[in-house]
Structures are given as structure tokens and as C-alpha cells.
Amino acid sequence: MKIVTKILLAISFVAFSPQSSAEAIRTGTHYVIAESLNVRTAPSANSDIARKLSKGSKVEVFELKKGWARVTDYIELTQTEKAALWVSAKYLSDKIEERAKCKVLDVDTSKTYSGGCKNGLAHGKGVAKGRDFYRGSFVNGNNHGYGVYEWGPKSDWARDRYEGEWNNGERTGYGVYEWGPKSDWARDRYEGEWNNGERTGYGVYEWGPKSDWARDRYEGEWNNGERTGYGEYSSNNKLANSKVEKGRYVQRGLFSKGRFTHICESKNNCQKITDTKTITKSQLKKLMGDAILKSIELDDSSIPVESRGELGVCLSDIFLGSILDDGKSAYTEDELNSLLPELQSKMMINMLGLSLDKEGLLRRIEKCSMRSVKKGFKNVSFNSLVLNMEDFKYENIKVSGNGLFMVNQFVLRNDAGSTNMIMVNVDSLENKTEILDKCSNPMQGCEVVVYGRVENDDYENILEARIIELKP
């Protein structure tokens, strides 16, 4: 067993609280001044990393040795072997750093700031950090001018990125917005003009590879975030009222609130479209499913973005019964208008009936949720994951192994005797208490299957668990 494992097990009882020791040379209380500081099992940069400390963390220094500071008492591992935890002394200070006195008005980037300042407000070039990150120009505390904004992993817009012009804290002017992998619009990209945070003016929108409209592209005029005005929409998939150009279907003309309304030979020669619009059955089920989710106020935040559509379809099958089992693959606008009253009535009746049987309703929702969460998770072996977690960053994966709760941390191992470990965050689990209780035996742990996503937390890759199942 690696020495880091022995120490982690042993210090579960001593943590970082100071104890008396004849060998200790007490030098007092210090604070971490680096953004992230490795805690090692020996006074050497080549020793194992036991954990990390964040900036501002408080430690007690017991001994100094060749630029290293011992921050725990020695722990007797055997009669002849003892160990402790060490950090690099150059990243410690006996004074707590003062918070920046220059204020940033965006609350999501206001935790720390470095840069120009005027009258107590960020002004000029600077870098602001908090839940999110901004680097660029400021005027009177607001993002103003040219800058880069990146949304942090805990944001509703996690991993999204905007680079371009700002005005008084709003995206205004020319800029590029790229949606992150956790977004409903993952890997989509817009480059063009903005006004008060909305796409307005001329711009190009390209749909990402995982979108329902993968590789589609629109170039033209926008208003308040919607395609409005003259533009060109192209796709590899067949489009109504389109022409085939260079192997792609192209709609060229006037758009209104996202709809293609006029075919144009030139910008001043347009003809209104009178064709009947259709909707596929799959699209209809997703729309009805979204309505059901809103009606029952289901919190689906634990369900991956790419699985929420499946949850809606599953619930619509439950609530709408056999109404949509009519052999049709799509509906015209007139057919949909005549069908909607029956759909709404059926959905309301079933929801009212199930509301009297709340346990039955919850069981059905749970069944759909579990099916939706698990669908699309990539099956990955423990060895493949532990060798290079970077390759699986931001992917939904399923991995089996031996779980162990120790030192306030849940880890996954290949088996009970393995020293290779993957850190797992279990904070969002509904069965967290059960998992921690079952997996707290340091000799045995517990056999589990983890459904989760590899994330980066304080410069370290960890597995964010969505579901953990205990094997019998």
C-alpha cells in the first residue's frame, strides 16, 4: 500500500489540528498565499500528493526543513516508520491577504480583482474573478470596452465564453459567443453584433455537432436574439422552400422571429411563403414533455442536458396514452390545431388522476428520470479513466469499482486493495447518506457503479457523481 494511502487513513483522526510532540518545532499559524497548494507526504516535490489547499487556508507549521513546512504531527505507521504532511514554505505567509479594495459591480466576478482602479471602482485594464472570470476593460466598475468573459463550472451557463465588446456591463457591439459542453446549445457559436446582451444586427450562427440542427448555419440579420430580417439558412438536412447549392439545402430570404417567411431572389425581390408548416411526432412529444415537466415542477437539474429531451418523451408517453399512436410521423399545422385540445384534455385528466396517487406519480417520474439519466453514458473501465482523466473531461461516463469514504472524501478504486484512486464528489446524490454509510469500512469499501461527469475543481480533475448504485 502506498504511503499516501496510509497517511490518509491515519489522519482521518488528526486532520490538521495541532498536537503536542517532542519532535515538533512550532513556528505558528500561517496562511496559504498560492491559488492552490499541494500537500505532500514528504519534504520533496517528488513525493505523493495527499490533498490540495486553497488560497487563504489556515495551517499550523511545526517544523521547517530545506524550504518545506511540516503541517501535521508525525504519525506512527509502524514501530520504525513514521510520516507527516508537508507543504512548500514559500507559499505560506503569517498574514492574511487583504481583499482588493477596488470594487467590481458584476457580483459573479467580484471576489478578487487586479488592475486599474478609480474612485474605488475597477477602471481600465483588469482581471476579475469569482464564480465566473472576466479579463478586459472596465469603466466605473462595469465591463466596458473589449474583454473576455468565461462562465464558471457552477454557473447556469457553465463553460460558455464571450469575447468582444461591452457597454456598461452588457454585451454590446461586435463579439463571439461560444456555448460550453454543458449547455442546451453545446458547442454552438455566434459571431456578430450585439445590443444589451442580445444578438441584434448582422451575425453568423453555427450549430454544434451535438445539436438537433448539427452543422446548420445562419448568416444574416437578427433582432433581440431571433433571426429577423434578410438572411441565409443552410443545412445538410432537407429544408422546406429551399434550394440545393453545393450539396446543402439553402433558404435565402426574409425571416421573422426565427421563421422563414419570404423567398427572395434578391434583397428587394421577395415572395411570401404560403406552404403549410409541419411538426414531427418526436418534436411534438418533446414539446408536450416540456409542458408536463413545467406543470409538475420537476427539478431536472441532475439530469444531463442531452438526456432531458428523453425524459420529456418518456413522460408524454405516460400522460398521453395512445392518442399519438396513430401511425403518423408528422402533423400539418391544421392537424396539430385539431389534435391539441384532445392532447391537453388527456394530459390534464391523467395528471389529476395521478395527483391523487402521489407515490405512483413519483414512481413513474423516477423511472423516466433514471432511464433518461443513464441513457447515453459512455461505459469506461476504471484503468482507462485513472490513467488519463483529461481525455474524458466534461463527458458523461459510467465506471465500476470499489468505493471508499475516508477523510471526508469519497474515492473510487479498482478493487479493495488498489492504491490507485479517483476523487468523487457525492454532494448532489439523493442517497448520499446510504452510500457513505455502506462504504466507510477502510478494509472493504463497497462495490459500486458510478454515473457521472469528469470536472475540474481547483485545478484537479474529479468525478462529479450523478448516480451511484450499490452492487449486491
Explain the layout of strands and helices.
Blueprint: H1 3-10, E1 28-32, E2 36-40, E3 49-54, E4 58-61, E5 63-65, E6 68-70, E7 75-76, E8 82-83, E9 86-88, E10 92-93, E11 112-118, E12 121-129, E13 133-139, E14 142-150, E15 161-167, E16 170-178, E17 189-195, E18 198-206, E19 217-223, E20 226-235, E21 243-245, E22 248-256, E23 259-266, E24 269-272, E25 278-280, H2 281-295, H3 305-320, E26 330-332, H4 333-355, H5 358-374, E27 378-379, H6 382-387, E28 396-406, E29 409-413, E30 421-425, H7 432-438, E31 446-457, E32 460-470
Parallel strand pairs: 27-28, 30-32
Antiparallel strand pairs: 1-4, 1-10, 2-3, 5-6, 6-9, 7-8, 11-12, 12-13, 13-14, 14-15, 15-16, 16-17, 17-18, 18-19, 19-20, 20-22, 21-22, 22-23, 23-24, 25-26, 28-29, 28-31, 29-30, 31-32
Helix pairs in contact: 2-3, 3-5
List the defining traits of the structure above:
single chain, alpha+beta, SH3 type barrels, Histone H3 K4-specific methyltransferase SET7/9 N-terminal domain, 4 domains, 14-stranded antiparallel sheet, 5-stranded mixed beta barrel, about 20% helix
